[in-house]
Structure to design on (448 residues):
C-alpha cells in the first residue's frame, strides 16, 4: 500500500478514536493526546522530513476534531516531530524507561506549546492554573499507548525507507 | 551535488509552519472554506465515531468504574443532600407561595417559556485543548445555529460555539472568552460578566458603577438587549461584591446552573425573536 494512503488511513482511524473512546479515557478531566503521539512517533520512525509532513497533517486533523483554529496544532506538531527525529539517534539505544520518559516529555512539551500558541492567538482555552498538571498527566497517559501505536506508525511511515544495515568488520567480535 | 530543498528538514519545517500560519490567518479573517472544511471533516467521521463509541462502550464503562468511582459516590451524596434541601425548600415554598409569586412577577422571569430544543450531552472534545467546552447531540439538522444561547432550568450555561450537522460544541459560561450582559436584580445595575476559567464562577467587572450597592446573595439575571441571551435568564448569585475596590470592581457571581453535573440542556432556538 502506498505510504500516503497508509498515513491517510491511520489519521482517519486516529481521529475517530480520539473523538470517541479517548474522550472518555480521562483522569480528572485530563486525557490522552493520541494525535500528538502519532506525530512524535512519525518523527521517530520516519525521519525529520517525512515526520514533519505527517505531523502537519496530523495537526490539521486534530484542529478539525477539537474545533481549534485550523493551524494551531499543525504549527506545533511538525516542530515536535523534527525535534524528536533529531534526538532519535541519542535515544535509540537507551533503555525502554528512558525512551518512555522521552515520549512523555515530548507529549508534555507539545501540550504546553499548543497552549502557548493558542494563548498568543487569543484562544484562552486552557485552564492556566492546571496547565502544568495537565501536561504531565497527559504525557504519562499518552505514553502508555506508545508501545502498541509505535509498530503501527512504524509500518505506516517507514515504507520505502532503507532498513538498518548491520555491518561486521573482519576480525570483529560483534 | 547540491542538496534538494526537500531534503533539508529546516526548510521543510519552515514551509509547513508558514502554511499553518497562513491557515490560521485565513481562519481568523473568517475565510469561510476553512470553517466548512473543519465542519465537513467532523460530519464525515461522525457516523464512524458513533459506531466506535458503541463498540467501545463496555471498555468506557469499566474505565469510568475504575477511575470515576469516587466521583460517582460523591455525586450520589451530593444528590441526596440536594433532594433533602429541595424537600425543605418545597415546604418553605408552599408557605411563602404568595410572596414568591409576587417576587417572580416583579423580576418578570419568563425564560421557561422560551422556544428551546432539548439536547443531551455526549461528552467533551478529545485531547486537552478545550477545557471549558462540551459536546451535545443536536446540530443544524435540528435547527440549531452558531451563537445560540444554552440554558437549563437552573439558568445560564453557555452558547453554541460550533454547530455541525448532528452535534454541536457548547462553550460554557466559565470559558475565559465567554461574555454576557447581566443585571443585578436589587440595584438594577447592569454590566458585562465574563468567565475566568474557574469552575462555577463568573466575574462582573465591566460597566458596573464603583458605588453600586451590591449585596452578598443578590440575584443576577441576563440583561437582554443585543445579547444572544434573552433578558431575565437567571445567571447566579453574588458571592463577593468587592466592596473594598478603589477604582474598578470585580464582583464574583456563583453560577446557578451546576456546569459540572449536566446531562440535558436547552438550546434557545432564536433568542432575538424571543
Amino acid at each position: 500500500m502506498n505510504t500516503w494512503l497508509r498515513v491517510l488511513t491511520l489519521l482517519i482511524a486516529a481521529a475517530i478514536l480520539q473523538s470517541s473512546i479517548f474522550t472518555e479515557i480521562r483522569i480528572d478531566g485530563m486525557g490522552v493526546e493520541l494525535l500528538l503521539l502519532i506525530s512524535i512517533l512519525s518523527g521517530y520512525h520516519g525521519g525529520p522530513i517525512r515526520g514533519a509532513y505527517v505531523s502537519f497533517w496530523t495537526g490539521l486533523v486534530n484542529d478539525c476534531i477539537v474545533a481549534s483554529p485550523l493551524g494551531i496544532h499543525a504549527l506545533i506538531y511538525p516542530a515536535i516531530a523534527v525535534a524528536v527525529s533529531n534526538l532519535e539517534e541519542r535515544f535509540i539505544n537507551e533503555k525502554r524507561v528512558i525512551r518512555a520518559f522521552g515520549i512523555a516529555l515530548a507529549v508534555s512539551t507539545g501540550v504546553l506549546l499548543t497552549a502557548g500558541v493558542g494563548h498568543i492567538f487569543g484562544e484562552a482555552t486552557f485552564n492556566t492554573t492546571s496547565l502544568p498538571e495537565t501536561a504531565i498527566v497527559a504525557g504519562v497517559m499518552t505514553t502508555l499507548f506508545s508501545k502498541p501505536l509505535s509498530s503501527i506508525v512504524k509500518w505506516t511511515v517507514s515504507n520505502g525507507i532503507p532498513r538498518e544495515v548491520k555491518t561486521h568488520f573482519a576480525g570483529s567480535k560483534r | 551535488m547540491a542538496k534538494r530543498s526537500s531534503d533539508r528538514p529546516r526548510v521543510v519545517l519552515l514551509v509547513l509552519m508558514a502554511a499553518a500560519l497562513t491557515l490560521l490567518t485565513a481562519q481568523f479573517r473568517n475565510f469561510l472554506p476553512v470553517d466548512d472544511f473543519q465542519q465537513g471533516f467532523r460530519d464525515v467521521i461522525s457516523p464512524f465515531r458513533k459506531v466506535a463509541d458503541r463498540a467501545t462502550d463496555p471498555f468506557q464503562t469499566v474505565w469510568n468504574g475504575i477511575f470515576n468511582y469516587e466521583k460517582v459516590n460523591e455525586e450520589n451524596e451530593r444528590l441526596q443532600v440536594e433532594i433533602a434541601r429541595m424537600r425543605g425548600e418545597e415546604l418553605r415554598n408552599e408557605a411563602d407561595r404568595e410572596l414568591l409569586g409576587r417576587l417572580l412577577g416583579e423580576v418578570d422571569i419568563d425564560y421557561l417559556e422560551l422556544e428551546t430544543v432539548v439536547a443531551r450531552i455526549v461528552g467533551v472534545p478529545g485531547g486537552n485543548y478545550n477545557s471549558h467546552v462540551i459536546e451535545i447531540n443536536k446540530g443544524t439538522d435540528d435547527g440549531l445555529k452558531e451563537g445560540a444561547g444554552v440554558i437549563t432550568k437552573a439558568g445560564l450555561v453557555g452558547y453554541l460555539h460550533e454547530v455541525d450537522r448532528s452535534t454541536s460544541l457548547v462553550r460554557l459560561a466559565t470559558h475565559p472568552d465567554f461574555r454576557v450582559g447581566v443585571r443585578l436584580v436589587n440595584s438594577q445595575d447592569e454590566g458585562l460578566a465574563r468567565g475566568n476559567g474557574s469552575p462555577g464562577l463568573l466575574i462582573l467587572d465591566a460597566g458596573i458603577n464603583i458605588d453600586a450597592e451590591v449585596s452578598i446573595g443578590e440575584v443576577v439575571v441576563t440583561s437582554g438587549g443585543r445579547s444572544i441571551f434573552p433578558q431575565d435568564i437567571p445567571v447566579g448569585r453574588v458571592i463577593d461584591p468587592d466592596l473594598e475596590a478603589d477604582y474598578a470592581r470585580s464582583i464574583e457571581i456563583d453560577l446557578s446552573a451546576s456546569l459540572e453535573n449536566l446531562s440535558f440542556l436547552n438550546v434557545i432556538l432564536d433568542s432575538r425573536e424571543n
User: Anything to note?
Assistant: Chain A has one domain: 3-157. DSSP finds seven helices and two strands in chain A.
